[in-house]
Amino acid sequence: MADEHGATLNADVRRRDLPEPARDLLSRVTLIIASNRGPVEFHREPDGSFSTRRGTGGVVTAISAVSRFTDAIWVAAAMTDGDRLRAELAAERGEAVIEPDNADFRVRFVVSDPEDYDRYYNHISNPLLWFLQHYLWDTPRQPDIDHITWDAWNNGYVTVNRQFAEEILAVADSSAQPPIVMLQDYHLYLVPGYLREARPDLILQHFVHIPWPDPDYWRLLPVEFRRAICHSMLANDIVGFQTPRHARSFVYTCEATLDDVDIDYRRREIRYRGHTTYVRSYPISIDVDAVRRVAASEDALRHEEHIKTFLNEHTILRVDRAEPSKNIVRGFQAYDRFLELHPEFLGRVNFLAFLVPSRLEVAEYVDYLDDINTIVGRINTKYANVAERDGVAWEPVRLFIGDDYPRALAAMKYYDVLLVNAIFDGMNLVAKEGALLNRRNGVLILSEGAGAYQQLSEHALSVSPADVESTAHAIYQALTMPPEQRAYHAQALRRLVIEQDILAWIYSQLEDLAATVGGSLVRA
Ligand code: GDG
After folding, report:
1. Largest Cα–Cα separation, the chain
2. Contact 137/193 with Cβ under 8 angstroms?
3. What does DSSP say about strands 392-393 and 397-401: parallel, antiparallel, or unpaired?
4. Is the model's pLDDT at 464 over the cut of 70?
5. Dist CA 182 CA 163 (whole Å)
6. In the predicted model, is pLDDT for residue 506 greater than 70?
7. In angstroms, rounded to a whole number, what is the distance separating the alpha carbons of residues 484 and 95?
8. 447 CB under 6 A from ligand 1?
9. How far is the C-alpha of 304 from the C-alpha of 295, rounded, in Å?
10. CA of 63 relative to ligand 1 center, distance in Å
11. 430 Cα–ligand 1 center, Å
């Protein structure tokens, strides 16, 4: 049995090491990671020196963990003025890579013209690709692919992807060992094609963090965009997705988009113009130790005291970036419906929502935040004066808006129900963090559209994301679940998360690289 933080489980099952073939592969290569956002930010201090701020998140942890076996270099867009200045300094000094203080890897920045970057990031990557891949369009009205979109594609997405490829090539060309390039996500779909053209010998792997929709939905994009994306993605040796479902959709999309693909469905291989791409799934997870550390930090403990004042006999929680794919508004509609159906809960349950404002330069995100505020105001007004709690009027929903990760983790310790009803989600790490940290044997309500569903659904209450009525019933079912059943599922969820943490994600990718393409390095 684990203690309430799962410490025993941790010691028992988690510390597997990097398997030998993968370790052997890493000892013979240089690992190049490329992602839009890098693992470290530079800032210029008044005395002219540079300070660095390390990024957080699973991918950074995963690469740090394997960087002791290999030389790892991270290529990323320069985000801050400090990044750009540091990149200029590196160019003046003729440094191929920058060595940040206290980092496990070196970095190289892609410095783009701000307008190109804006077209790449704010016109194509986020409003277009992200929306497409989460099926977010109201299709009779959106998207309009107009001259602005075409311009953003040709003079933004293509431009910045080419720059990424150039910087990666500069690193690869100066590396003494054969390079393996691990590309991250939808910002960089065109990079593998450019890399393969220039260096047919490179080993390329691309992990897509978000869902991959069916080929019919991709048809909303111009055929030139689709072809360019599929053509380039098939320059990879391995393409990885969060779930087998997304991997399958990718195979179908390539089949529907390109004429000359030859697909082996059983082996999950696509042959295209003499090259084979393996299509695999690697469910991402959390860094169990790091999440526990932040949750136990002074900062989190301080928040905990405050959060406790908002708990009720029953507490429902949600934690999300405030954006449409997370389905926050329908979550509140379901809560409202639950209160209508079960007035016996009036005054006895609080819904706490910790929301991080996100991508406020995209109009739909701003509108969505307004919709959230509107429905919360409506629910709180509707139930004002129906009940009291500790002598004050009951407030059924409490919104916490802001960027505060320790606070969000602190809240996860106290829910009775965690509502994760995303319409579509690559994985959804909140479901996993909650399962790890919660101390009340809380019940997970989980959308079928979340990537996490594949791993966690057996121990969660499933909801179809648009089904407000069933979500209301699920809230009731969760709040009335017998304690022993709650405990059983909560422990099973925690065990699953601990067993398959972020190291399992990176290790399985490296094992596949060693098994499928490692041999070609020996021959080279
Ligand atoms: C992509 C995919 C996939 C919470 N409050 C704050 C905050 N958080 C943390 C959460 C969690 C993370 O942010 C959000 O997790 P997601 O899974 O939604 O990840 P995204 O980065 O949005 O998205 C997603 C993921 O990539 C990994 O592959 O799971 O499907 O969309 O860890 O606890 N973080 C900060 N401030 C907060 O207030 N900084």
Report:
1. 76
2. no
3. unpaired
4. yes
5. 16
6. yes
7. 60
8. no
9. 9
10. 18
11. 7
Q: Residue 139: its pLDDT value, please?
A: 96
For residues 402 and 321, give the distance between their C-alpha atoms in angstroms, rounded to a whole number: 10
Instruction: Please give the share of the chain, as a percent, with pLDDT higher than 70.
Output: 96
CA 409 to ligand 1 centroid distance, Å: 12
pLDDT value, residue 521: 52
Which tokens in the block code for residue 270?
A: 């696509």
pLDDT at residue 517 greater than cutoff 60: yes
Under 8 Å between Cβ of 233 and 218: no
Cβ pair 318, 375 in contact under 8 A: no
Q: How confident is the model at residue 516 (pLDDT cuts 50, 70, 90)?
A: confident
Length of the chain counted residue by residue: 524
Which amino acid would we find at residue 218?
Answer: W
Q: Which residues of 349-369 are buried (b: 16+ CB within 10 A; e: fewer)?
A: bbbbbbbbebbeebebbeebb
> Tokens representing 260?
């000359």
What is the model's pTM? 0.94
B/e letters for 319-328, b = 16+ CB within 10 Å, e = fewer, are: bbebbbbbbb
Residue 449 has pLDDT above 50, yes or no: yes
Pocket test for ligand 1, best of 429, 456, 505 (most atoms within 8 A of CB): 429
- Nearest by Cα to 109 from 46, 194, 6, 34: 34
Q: Tokens at residue 472, please?
A: 């209301």
**Which helix or strand (DSSP H or E) is residue 519 part of?**
helix 518-523
Q: Is the CB of 356 under 6 A from ligand 1?
A: yes
Distances (CA, A) of 139 to 122, 135, 219, 253: 20, 9, 12, 19
Contacts of 356 (CB under 8 A, 6+ apart): 320, 321, 322, 401, 402, 403, 408
pLDDT tens-digit series, residues 412-448: 999 999 999 999 999 999 999 999 999 999 999 999 9
Residue 397: strand pairing partners: 351
pLDDT for res 199: 96
* Residue with CA at minimum distance from ligand 1 atom 35: 405
pLDDT confidence of residue 513: 95
Q: How many CB atoms within 10 Å of residue 471?
A: 25
Q: What distances in angstroms separate CA 293 from CA 3, 9, 30, 31, 442, one per listed residue?
A: 16, 16, 31, 28, 21
Residue 1's pLDDT is 31
Q: What is the pLDDT of residues 331-373, one digit of tens each?
A: 999 999 999 999 999 999 999 999 999 888 888 899 999 999 9
- Beta carbons within 8 Å of 63's beta carbon, 6+ residues apart: 31, 33, 39, 72, 74, 104, 105, 506
Q: What is the pLDDT of residue 520?
A: 64
Match 């993605």 to its residue by tokens.
233
Tokens representing residue 509 in the block: 């990718």
Q: Encoding tokens for residue 248?
A: 């399958």
Distance CA 73, CA 475 (A): 46
C-beta of residue 194 within 8 angstroms of C-beta of residue 233: no
| Strand partners for 222 | none
